[in-house]
Amino acid sequence: MTKLITIVDDEEDILEALSVFLKKNGYDVNTYTNATDFFKQLKKKTPDLFILDLMLPDMDGYDICKKLKNDPNYSSLPVIMLSAKSEESDKIIGLELGADDYVTKPFSQKELIARIKVILKRNVLKNTQTTTEICDGKIKLNKENYEVIVDNKKIVLTITEFKLLELMMSRKGTVLSRDKILDYIWGEDKIVIDRTVDVHIRHLRKKLGKYSDAIKNIHGVGYKIED
């Protein structure tokens, strides 16, 4: 099934160029120049991935991302932020709000398509085992249903958070360096900063609630998860 990508950017030349390029690469594309029109049309068809410009006339990309991540209908869908702001602090803000990636303008279309492919394939099953548990079964992860249960309640994770938890639970007790985590989640196409892992770990701990301490920070090395 063809994946649908929604782009919100007030620069029409960028919208047109991206739309043509993505369609040539086999994607369906919806484009909007403002947040108002975007939200009006969103309920008609849910995309597989959002690309959000930071500077928009009626609402900035940060606010759109925050609104999407607070809506259970869209919170697990991937978001790529697109912006001329290239400072690390700007990237961290986007990641803190739940974005899966941050691309700075000007950008290579080939680089962007590589990032899109990596993000969209993260939820592909990597082995036959579908369910893993930690904390005496209080935390359960099911890859087939893309579902995480904590204390018998389903919690909503982004694709990145899910893959991060999946990796650590599959290697319970093993210390994973930031580089190993980046390689697993982003693969050879990773074009991210080291602090990306820390941001997603922080989000994941918050969602695990009272079990947040199961994720251990090994200073100067990386992270591990244990009962």
Net shape = globular
Average pLDDT figure: 86
The number of helical runs is 8
Tell me the β content.
15-25%
The oligomeric status of these chains comes to: single chain
**What is the strand tally?**
12
Q: Helix/strand-derived class?
A: alpha/beta
What can you see in these coordinates?
This protein is of the alpha/beta class and 227 residues long. The chain has helices spanning 12-24, 35-42, 61-69, 88-96, 109-120, 159-170, 178-186, 195-208, and strands at residues 4-8, 28-32, 49-53, 79-83, 101-104, 131-134, 139-142, 147-150, 153-155, 176-177, 215-218, 222-225. Helix 6 crosses helix 8. The N and C termini lie far apart (39 Å). The protein folds into two domains: 4-120, Response regulator (Rossmann fold); 131-225, Arc Repressor Mutant, subunit A (Orthogonal Bundle). The protein is globular, with a radius of gyration of 18 Å. Helix content is 38%, strand content 22%. The chain is built from eight helices and twelve strands. The model is unreliable at 123-129 (pLDDT under 50).
Summed up, what is this model?
The chain is an alpha/beta fold and 227 residues long.
Task: Name the features.
227 residues; alpha/beta; Rossmann fold; Arc Repressor Mutant, subunit A; 2 domains; 5-stranded parallel β-sheet; 4-stranded antiparallel β-sheet
Produce the secondary structure layout.
Blueprint (H helix, E strand, L loop, with lengths): L3 E5 L3 H13 L3 E5 L2 H8 L6 E5 L7 H9 L9 E5 L4 H9 L4 E4 L4 H12 L10 E4 L4 E4 L4 E4 L2 E3 L3 H12 L5 E2 H9 L8 H14 L6 E4 L3 E4 L2
Parallel strand pairs: 1-2, 1-3, 3-4, 4-5
Antiparallel strand pairs: 6-7, 7-8, 8-9, 10-12, 11-12
Helix pairs in contact: 6-8
